[in-house]
Structure formats: C-alpha cells, structure tokens
Amino acid sequence: MTQRILIPLDGSRSARRALEHACLMQRAEGGVLHLLHIVEPPVATDHLGATTGSTPVDYTPEKGHEHGEALLKETWAAVGDPSAEVHFHVEDNPPGRPDRTIVEMAQALEVDAIVMGSRGLSDMKGLVVGSVSHKVSHVAHCTVITLHVRDTGPDEVLGPS
Question: Which stretches make up the UspA domain (predicted)?
Fold first, then answer.
C-alpha cells in the first residue's frame, strides 16, 4: 500500500526521530515522504526589537526560506534513504499557528499520515497553551503519529546555523 506521509521538521531531536520513524514506514509500505519546515521569523535581540517583537534588521523572508530548505536537506541527508521519493516544502507561518499550517498542508497534499515530534511541554503548560502536536492530532483528517524524545537536557536544535 503506497502512503503519502507528511513530516514537519523544526530541527529538534523529536522531529528528527519522527523522520526516522516515517522512513521506516516508507520502507515497509512504500510511499512518498513530504518534509515540511514552517518558517518562523526570529525575534530581534536588541532591546527595542525584543520589546516590540520585531525581526532582526537583516532578516528577510528569503533568508527564512533558504534556512528552512537547508535544514530539510541536511536532515534528509543524515537520516533519509537516497532511493526514497521525497519532496521538500517550506511554508510561512501565520503568527503562532504552525498547527494550522501543518493541517492545511496535509489536506492539500492528501496525505495518509502525519508523523511529527513532540517537544514534551509540561503537563500544566500543555493544558494552558496546548502543544502543536496535540492540536494537529485533534483536527487532522488523517492518522497522526507523535514521537516524543525524553532526556534531561534542553531540546537542542539541529541543522544549519
């Protein structure tokens, strides 16, 4: 059975683990992998920029897309099967709504499954804010598999710097 699988990647260990799992699914059942990076513009680090939530002066949407594409390609090169069919997608994020972007992309691509990482918000923060993976699992039209990597250190972001 050929499957279309969407894997949102943000550079975290849990997202990389989700890609590893999706690759296993693809090898077992065949199919097409769609890797998605959602561009979130960085917040400026200077006092005025940080206070107002603006982006750094030298940031452009093109830089965000280039960084996203590089992250997808580097993660795929480290984990993926060179013979597998894979497509890279870089999308802009409506402020604070990556869950919406993931679900809309899943519908547009008519995927059979979304495999994504979970950063493991604390129970209280997850209840108040809600995690992206939790929101996606409640509204997606397809199967959603969430993988969580447990460790004692902070969730290190992988990929290009």
Answer: 1-146
